[in-house]
């Protein structure tokens, strides 16, 4: 930014009389901007008038009224209730939620795989290092759409039919129809269990805060993790025992050629999330590697001379410092993953681009409104993620005097 | 001094002893293996697991692609056996479609000529010692796209018209990639300069443009170009589908390119700007003679990364029904003549090798250029 002061010569101070108006940078700048503004305004005007005449001549309705009209198509995965006569507004909501679901699961998975591969690429073991390099080069150099198609075919071809599905505890079934899991059915008093979970989380946070305070003052450590796990599992368990276990599970059952009951995770979701995680993890691995290499070796040596073993050294000394380098590019990878979830349209997973910018646009023909809404949704997700990650970045940033 | 003081002492050596070889345990492949593969029980275990995994993957690939592969055949019958690997006759039968799409067979010399011209122009551009760099660059970045367009489209010089609607396969992949690359770099430079400008309207317009395109996925941009752009243009002005997609891809890539170039501009020290102004250069000459040559050199890896991203993104045009390599491949899968359990994996293996070859090649080349251009300014 400071450079800009350097490139803004201001000869108008002092002997402005000797510079002709044509050569005065201020006048030139003003005229240049005026021309730009006029061009932008004219282009916008032409676009708007053209759009008006085109819409009128093609008989396309305008406005957002279509959001209240019933959408007469079905959606094969929805986090909220969706019926045949739901509105297009409901379709939009289902799409946004499905996009967020892919983004959330994908980000968690990609981060785990990416950190593992990134650390593997720095391993002293040649074999581990080589495998990491192969992973990164292969995943980064193949188009994400290609990888989605590939994993989708693998999933469809190598999954058994529902009759021979893999099962776990006779409750989880995996077949080419997707993954069937028991779903939770809430009975009377279940609200208290939900409440107790919230209370347990709050208590765990309080314990963590207290333990940190105490460690800073006295140096004594407290087993926060085990306490938190005990609280979050134990408290709801006790509460549900008091209310006579009001939670039941709807276990899927094989009936005829398909399963009945339970929750279904469709194969499109698995293929999409898996492919995007694998793809993004390759980039995250490189970011993690660069971040760890940016931590000076003296830090590792100092940790070693204090008696820390390699594991705690990595966890307590290297990674916290590497995070400062890692966070900004990691944010853009998270955003890329979220935006790439729009590739779902190719395998038919019902997220916003597929069912709103695709099906809804085809049925209503209101291209301008539909695409504008879709773009706004993505822009909002992008901005919110950046704000959150910038906040986190400021928290972990190096505080220098 | 010592030599001259005691010249005739027989027990003092006057020559160096021959150096002994290093101990066996410290040099050679065995020592390397011990240090890098078996430095402890956990590492040994990891090495064995890793080796097993790598050997399994490599053998499975070799087995599927070569050992069990079918090499000759006329239709699906050849690839229907129980233990059959890759079905290469499928690729052979569909090769024309995968490379040219539905481009008429009699006219396929035109895309071939375009490929050849491109190769002839790009190879000397990439070799450092080849002469006439500037003329070569102008030919490739300005003349070649125009010539290639008229050659492919036809309708001039007695060449029959081949509508872009029937172009396809690798031809479309390369057309989208080259147009995107050629258009996005200058547009990106202009946007980056606009974002760094001190004129508020220009800066604001550039920021709005860049952040908008970077905030939305390419698919919505392609939807925008396909469904929304025609509404904004006067009636009668018909763009064909490929051109609309090209506009979308170029604008999208330009926004990313602008951010890469901006990074380079920010890395140029202020003294360079002041020095340029001190010798009386105006804005454009300062930028094109002093700042941009240094800034672009700094960000070559970033520019090539954007190119690689663009190349991978060309696959997305299949969603707006422009059949590039991946699109033609999926169209070919639908052919019942070749419907076998291995057809899809064969097709994806072929496409995978194609994309990997180009993307990996570009990244290797960028690393080579980076090393070569490293003129010692870095710490």
From TrEMBL, chain A:
Sequence intervals crossing the membrane: 30-48, 91-120, 179-211, 223-249, 269-288, 370-392
Gene Ontology molecular function: any one: transmembrane transporter activity
Primary location class: membrane
Subcellular location: Cell inner membrane; Cell membrane
Gene Ontology process terms (BP): amino acid transport
Membrane-related topology note: Multi-pass membrane protein
GO annotation, cellular component aspect: ATP-binding cassette (ABC) transporter complex
Residue ranges annotated for the ABC transmembrane type-1 domain, each copy included: 96-389
CDD domains named in the record: TM_PBP2 (cd06261)
UniProt entry keywords in alphabetical sequence: Amino-acid transport, Cell membrane, Membrane, Transmembrane, Transmembrane helix, Transport
Family the entry assigns: Belongs to the binding-protein-dependent transport system permease family. HisMQ subfamily.
Protein name: Amino acid ABC transporter permease
Origin organism lineage: Bacteria, Pseudomonadati, Pseudomonadota, Alphaproteobacteria, Rhodobacterales
From TrEMBL, chain B:
Keyword match Ion transport: no
SUPFAM superfamilies per the UniProt record, alphabetical: MetI-like
Gene Ontology BP term (one): amino acid transport
Organism: Agaricicola taiwanensis
Domain ABC transmembrane type-1 positions: 170-366
Predominant location: membrane
InterPro entries registered for this protein in UniProt: AA_ABC_transptr_permease_3TM (IPR010065), ArtM/GltK/GlnP/TcyL/YhdX-like (IPR043429), MetI-like (IPR000515), MetI-like_sf (IPR035906)
Membrane topology: Multi-pass membrane protein
Protein name: Amino acid ABC transporter permease
Signal sequence residues: none
Keywords noted in UniProt: Cell membrane, Membrane, Transmembrane, Transmembrane helix, Transport
GO cellular component, as recorded: ATP-binding cassette (ABC) transporter complex
CDD domains: TM_PBP2
PANTHER family in the cross-refs: INNER MEMBRANE AMINO-ACID ABC TRANSPORTER PERMEASE PROTEIN YHDY, MEMBRANE COMPONENT OF AMINO ACID ABC TRANSPORTER
Cell location: Cell inner membrane; Cell membrane
A molecular-function term among this protein's GO annotations: transmembrane transporter activity
Spans traversing the lipid bilayer: 44-67, 109-127, 134-154, 166-194, 215-233, 245-265, 286-308, 345-363
Family as reported in the entry's similarity comment: Belongs to the binding-protein-dependent transport system permease family. HisMQ subfamily.
């Amino acid at each position: 930014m400071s450079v800009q002061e350097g490139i803004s010569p201001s000869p108008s101070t002092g002997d402005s009389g000797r510079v002709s108006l044509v050569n005065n940078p201020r006048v030139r700048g003003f005229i240049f901007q005026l021309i730009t503004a006029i061009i932008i305004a004219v282009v916008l005007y032409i676009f708007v008038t053209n759009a008006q005449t085109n819409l009128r001549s093609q008989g396309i309705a305008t406005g957002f009224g279509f959001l209240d009209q019933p959408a007469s198509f079905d959606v094969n995965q929805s986090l909220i209730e969706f019926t045949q006569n739901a509105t297009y507004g409901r379709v939009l909501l289902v799409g946004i939620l499905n996009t967020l679901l892919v983004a959330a699961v994908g980000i968690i998975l990609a981060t785990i795989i990416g950190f593992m591969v990134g650390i593997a690429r720095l391993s002293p073991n040649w074999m581990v290092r080589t495998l990491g390099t192969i992973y990164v080069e292969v995943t980064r150099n193949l188009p994400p759409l290609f990888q989605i198609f590939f994993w989708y075919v693998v999933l469809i071809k190598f999954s058994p039919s529902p009759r021979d599905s893999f099962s776990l505890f006779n409750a989880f079934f995996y077949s080419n129809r997707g993954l069937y899991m028991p779903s939770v059915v809430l009975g009377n008093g279940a609200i208290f269990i939900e409440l107790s979970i919230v209370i347990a989380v709050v208590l765990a946070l309080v314990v963590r805060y207290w333990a940190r305070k105490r460690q800073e003052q006295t140096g004594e450590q407290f087993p926060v993790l085990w306490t938190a796990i005990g609280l979050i599992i134990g408290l709801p368990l006790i509460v549900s025992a008091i209310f006579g276990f009001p939670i039941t599970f709807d276990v899927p059952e094989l009936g005829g050629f398909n399963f009945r009951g339970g929750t279904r995770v469709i194969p499109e979701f698995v293929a999409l999330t898996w492919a995007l995680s694998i793809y993004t993890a390759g980039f995250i691995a490189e970011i993690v590697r660069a971040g760890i290499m940016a931590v000076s070796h003296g830090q590792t040596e100092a940790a070693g001379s204090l008696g820390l073993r390699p594991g705690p050294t990595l966890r307590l000394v290297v990674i916290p410092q590497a995070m400062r380098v890692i966070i900004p590019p990691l944010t853009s990878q998270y955003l890329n993953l979220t935006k790439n979830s729009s590739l779902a349209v190719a395998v038919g997973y019902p997220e916003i681009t597929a069912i709103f910018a695709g099906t809804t646009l085809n049925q209503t023909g209101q291209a301008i409104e539909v695409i504008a809404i879709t773009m706004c949704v993505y822009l909002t997700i992008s901005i919110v993620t950046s704000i959150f990650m910038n906040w986190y970045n400021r928290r972990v940033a190096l505080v220098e005097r | 001094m010592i030599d001259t003081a005691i010249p005739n002492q027989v027990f003092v050596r006057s020559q160096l002893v021959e150096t002994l070889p290093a101990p066996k345990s410290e040099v050679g492949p065995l020592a390397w293996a011990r240090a890098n593969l078996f430095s402890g029980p956990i590492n040994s275990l990891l090495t064995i697991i890793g080796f097993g995994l790598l050997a399994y993957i490599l053998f499975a690939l070799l087995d599927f692609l070569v050992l069990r592969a079918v090499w000759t055949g006329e239709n699906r019958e050849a690839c229907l056996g129980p233990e059959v690997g890759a079905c290469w006759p499928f690729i052979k039968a569909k090769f024309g479609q995968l490379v040219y799409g539905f481009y008429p067979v009699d006219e396929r010399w035109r895309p071939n000529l375009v490929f050849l011209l491109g190769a002839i122009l790009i190879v000397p551009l990439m070799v450092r010692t080849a002469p006439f760099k500037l003329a070569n660059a102008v030919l490739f970045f300005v003349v070649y796209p125009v010539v290639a367009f008229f050659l492919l489209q036809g309708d001039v010089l007695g060449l029959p018209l081949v509508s872009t609607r029937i172009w396809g396969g690798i031809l479309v992949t390369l057309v989208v990639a080259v147009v995107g690359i050629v258009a996005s770099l200058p547009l990106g430079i202009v946007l980056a300069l606009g974002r760094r400008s001190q004129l508020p309207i220009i800066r604001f317009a550039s920021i709005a443009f860049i952040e908008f395109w970077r905030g939305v996925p390419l698919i919505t941009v392609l939807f925008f170009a396909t469904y929304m752009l025609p509404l904004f243009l006067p009636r009668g002005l018909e763009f064909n589908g490929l051109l609309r997609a090209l506009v979308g891809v170029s604008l999208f890539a330009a926004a990313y390119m602008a951010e890469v170039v901006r990074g380079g501009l920010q890395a140029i020290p202020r003294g360079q700007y002041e020095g340029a102004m001190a010798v009386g250069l105006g804005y454009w000459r300062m930028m094109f003679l002093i700042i941009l040559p240094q800034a672009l050199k700094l960000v070559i890896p970033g520019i090539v990364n954007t190119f690689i991203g663009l190349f991978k993104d060309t696959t997305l045009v299949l969603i707006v029904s422009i059949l590039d390599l991946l699109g033609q491949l999926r169209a070919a899968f639908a052919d019942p003549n070749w419907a076998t359990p291995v057809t899809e994996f064969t097709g994806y293996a072929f496409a995978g090798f194609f994309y990997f070859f180009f993307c990996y090649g570009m990244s290797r080349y960028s690393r080579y250029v980076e090393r070569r251009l490293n003129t010692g300014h870095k710490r």
